[in-house]
């Protein structure tokens, strides 16, 4: 119990330090702000209603991008951070630190959760002010927004950590992650109604968490009449909870063992060899 407490304390302290570093890093912050700006620009140019409803397409897109921002932080940003820090020798140092891996995970989870929730809040507030975007209408909608956001992050953050543990290097990580995530962005009903897609595409998208994150957030942000545009004609909140919980369990089962395995495989010779290979290829060493 003492070791777990120490790991949590060390992880929270480390996470606080990393958050302060992020807030002071204008280049990193501008990247996250750009994502919000792009979502607002896309939504601002949509003037039609969602087919079969009186809900503006702008509202559907903003709700979809809200889900994608959470998904992106967990499945794109976090793996890149982990791979980069592995290249810098962070995992090698963790091998010599008691409780190092759990504390490291706590720190990364804190960083990602604050970043994701901050991006979500900024998008919703800016959308409401600049594009007449949607906000929850009552306590029930706020509660739905809270639990869908929480379960959504639990579904993608551990999975992102697991992916980051097995990706080869920072130079290939982005290319390997971006193509499937962009495919999910287009097929999960985040930028247009999923009913506009062929049924087989809808069925494939329904396996992954983004579709259910977006559907859950739409139920919190859009009027109840908008559910007629869903594939099932309903919000299916129990299914949202079930799928996101299943992905959360899978992610937790994979993340810690894979990170421990990656840490065990690290050595000074491996790290030096990777740096030498990067230098020979013309890429800057980590």
> What percent strand?
under 5%
Can you count the beta strands? 0
What order do the helices and strands follow?
A: HHHHHHHHHHH
Radius of gyration: 20 Å
Mean pLDDT: 82
Helix coverage percent: over 70%
- Class per helix and strand makeup: mainly alpha
Separate helix tally: 11
**Morphology:** globular
Largest sheet: none
Low-confidence stretches: none
Task: Note the gap between the termini.
Answer: 36 Å
Explained architecture:
- The chain is mostly helical.
- The chain contains eleven helices and no strands.
- Helix 3 packs antiparallel against helix 7.
- The longest helix has 31 residues.
- The chain is globular.
- The relative contact order is 0.15.
- The mean pLDDT is 82.
Summarize this entry quickly.
With 286 residues, the chain is an all-alpha fold. 76% of the residues lie in helices and 0% in strands. The mean pLDDT is 82.
List the helices and strands and how they pair.
Blueprint: H1 2-24, H2 26-44, H3 57-87, H4 90-94, H5 100-130, H6 139-166, H7 170-187, H8 199-205, H9 209-221, H10 237-265, H11 268-280
List keywords for this structure.
286 residues, mainly alpha, 11 helices, single chain
């Amino acid at each position: 119990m003492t070791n777990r407490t120490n790991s949590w304390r060390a992880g929270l302290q480390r996470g606080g330090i990393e958050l302060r570093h992020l807030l002071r890093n204008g280049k990193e912050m501008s990247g996250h702000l750009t994502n919000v700006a792009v979502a607002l620009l896309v939504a601002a140019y949509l003037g039609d209603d969602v087919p079969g409803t009186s809900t503006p397409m702008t509202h559907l897109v903003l709700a979809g991008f809200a889900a994608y921002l959470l998904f992106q932080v967990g499945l794109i940003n976090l793996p890149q951070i982990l791979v980069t820090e592995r290249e810098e020798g962070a995992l090698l140092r963790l091998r010599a630190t008691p409780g190092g891996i759990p504390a490291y995970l706590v720190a990364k989870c804190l960083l990602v959760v604050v970043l994701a929730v901050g991006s979500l809040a900024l998008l919703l507030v800016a959308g409401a002010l600049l594009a007449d975007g949607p906000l929850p209408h009552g306590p029930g909608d706020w509660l739905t927004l809270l639990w869908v956001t929480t379960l959504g992050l639990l579904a993608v953050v551990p999975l992102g950590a697991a992916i980051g543990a097995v990706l080869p290097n920072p130079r290939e990580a982005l290319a390997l992650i971006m193509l499937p995530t962009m495919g999910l962005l287009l097929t999960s009903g985040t930028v247009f109604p999923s009913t506009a897609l062929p049924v087989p595409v809808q069925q494939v998208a329904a396996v992954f968490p983004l579709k259910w994150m977006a559907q859950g957030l739409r139920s919190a942000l859009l009027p109840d009449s908008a559910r007629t545009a869903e594939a099932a004609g309903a919000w299916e909140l129990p299914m949202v909870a079930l799928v996101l919980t299943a992905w959360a369990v899978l992610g937790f089962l994979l993340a810690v063992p894979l990170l421990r395995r990656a840490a065990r495989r690290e050595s000074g010779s491996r790290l030096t060899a990777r740096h030498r290979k990067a230098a020979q290829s013309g890429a800057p060493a980590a």
